[in-house]
Amino acid sequence: MEHNIENRELKENLNIMNKKIIYYLTFILIFISGCGKNEQPETAVTKPENNTPELINSKTLIAKEFAKLVASSVEDGDMRKFIKETSVKQFDGDYNFLFVQAENEQVTPLTKSGAGSTFCEKLKSQNGKIQTKSTSFTDFDLLIESIKKNYPLLQIAVPNTGGADENNSTENWNTQEYTPLVAFLHEDFNEATTEYITAYDVDGNEYQLDAKNPPANPVIVISENERVIAVPKTKAEKPKAVIYETESYSYFLRETSPSCGSSILSDLLNNILKALKTPQRKALAEDNPQIKRRDIILKAKFVDADALHEVESWAKGQPEVALTILFTYKEGGSIKSNTILKRFSDNGWYKGCGFLNLGKCVTVKELNVPIMYWDLTNNGNFMKYVFIEEDGGSNTSYKISYNNVYEETTVNGQKTTTTTNASIDIPKENNDDIIGEAIVNFADPVLNGGTRYSTGLLEFWIGIE
User: What residue segments make up the domains of the chain, in order of their start?
Assistant: First the structure.
């Protein structure tokens, strides 16, 4: 009997132990299962998939989408006023401004409560409106970041075309009454081959503008600035005279670029400061030997509006004119070649035309730009002037050459003539346009307005100061 009782107690104890074991095993399984369920979300949070869209590399696509935004935004009178007032400041000599500079500028003034809108905020407010009309990308933040990283020289320009009425020029644009179209330029835009430029109105309607003939009314153009250089901050070379900086780029005008153009050694210039040889120059030097006189470009003009637009479309604003002068000089018993680079990129080449004055759209640009002291013995009889309209692009070169003549009188009174060829490759970018070349003769008159020369597209006058 006692043995049966003990067996029964033993069985009960075993049952209790089994229940406890099952309980603990079940708890462990639940715990393990629960931990497994919690692992997956943690992994997803700490190691998310990289769904960040890549920045847009195509400048054409960036300009196109940005043009749509600006076109939609100029329905707002404050935006029209801001774009006009900012462009007429002509920070680089033309009617334009860089997006990166204007991004955080106030379009509507701050109030006591702090309300107000910046240029970028005004554009962003149009993004939803554009999304309903466009099948291409419309992510505003992505577009702005793409501009800053991949299109740092994107500009908003209001070219001073004037059309058939000077009252419709940039500075006379009545922003309260007229809402312009907004155009954009393709990366492969070419003055010689491009026939039409795409533009948009405030409702997103598309237009094709004549690329050759200026429109009658102001047009806003989204394009790449040709007068400013953006240097990545990763480069070791630091430019001078920085006009603006962002996180990624330093901006400065082309004229201050350390890599643009050739230079004349100061020692060479000092050696050239001698008495001048032709009757006019010699007389000037003898009148007052203390005054050193040198050649200057007095003025220049395009032959007509067609000549100007052959090298620079109205959509690109004022032309960026660069002059390279090729000359020779004596050194160590031999004759060497060198160049001088001058740029005339500020405003004044073109104005609007009144009715029946279509051939007189160009103005004479007063320059008065010093060139160099010309010593006949050292530099010979001729120099070559080469004009280029700078449009940017990839780096290449352009060969210029000419024959120079040196005349000398020997000790026995005999005259000798030596002809030498000067040839040199000058920096050029593949989108630049050659305006033309001209030979300048040392014996040409330099008084009373100087001598007029022509490249076929551009005329210029050289005198002496």
Answer: 1-51, 59-226, 262-464
